Amino acid sequence: MLIHCLSAKKHNMSFFRDKVVIVTGSSSGIGKALALKLGEQGARVVINSRGDGKLQQAAGELSAKGYDVLAVAANVGKLDECRRLVDTVMTHYGRIDVLINNAGANMHGRVEDTDPEVLHLPVEINYLSALYMTRLCLPALKESRGSVLFVSSLAGIHGLPTIAAPTDASVKTAFTHTTEHDWNTFAEFLVQCILRRIDEDWTHQ
To answer: What is the C-alpha to C-alpha distance for residues 42 and 66, in angstroms, rounded to an integer?
Structure first.
């Protein structure tokens, strides 16, 4: 659905052309598919992931198509790395027009089988990353009257027996509504997109 919405804007290339768009968690899957569509529509795309290997491979794919891409490896679940990511984008482009909080992580399995020591990971990646990135991008987004998109999972609304820590959509929904009033005073769009489970092959369709 999200990719199809972007495709529908092909007739109006001016919306994304030359806009600086950050897509967190975009070395593969939905994030990478979004980055490719945004590049196709003329955006200056900032892709991100924790590791550098797949990230550079994705950057190579976008560059080979002639897209303007900046790859920044950073764990967006950590505040200091979010600061570095935003600073790198501002140094390179001097502006931020759109933030897509796409990064997410799930723990498959039953709660009783999950190591308590790792339960903080989905909280950091699914929620804190969106909170950190939105807050740090606010000055630049206010300047550009930019937009924010929260990508989240249906599993966060009604828990699934195979998802041990569904901290995604529920907290992003709350955060979206919390910021909605203030956002309307200066921004163009504040959107939450809740997706069902999607197989990796979907991103190539």
So the answer is: 10
Compute the distance between CA of residue 24 and CA of residue 100 in angstroms, rounded to an integer: 6
Which residue is it, tokens 């994304």? 16
In the chain, where does DSSP find H-type helix?
2-7, 29-40, 53-64, 79-93, 120-122, 129-144, 169-183
CA 200 to chain centre: 16
Cβ(173)–Cβ(192) below 8 Å: yes
Task: Return d(Cα 24, Cα 56) in angstroms, integer.
Answer: 14
Which are the contacts of 106, defined by CB distance < 8 A and separation ≥ 6? 122, 153, 155, 163, 165, 166, 168
Listed as ranges, residues in the chain with pLDDT below 70 are: 1-13, 106-120, 122, 153-205
Do residues 190 and 176 touch, judged by C-beta distance below 8 A? Answer: yes
- List pLDDT tens digits, range 48-101: 999 999 999 999 999 999 999 999 999 999 999 999 999 999 999 999 999 999
- Rounded to an integer, what is the distance from CA 191 to the centroid of its chain? 12
Q: Maximum distance among all alpha carbons in the chain?
A: 51
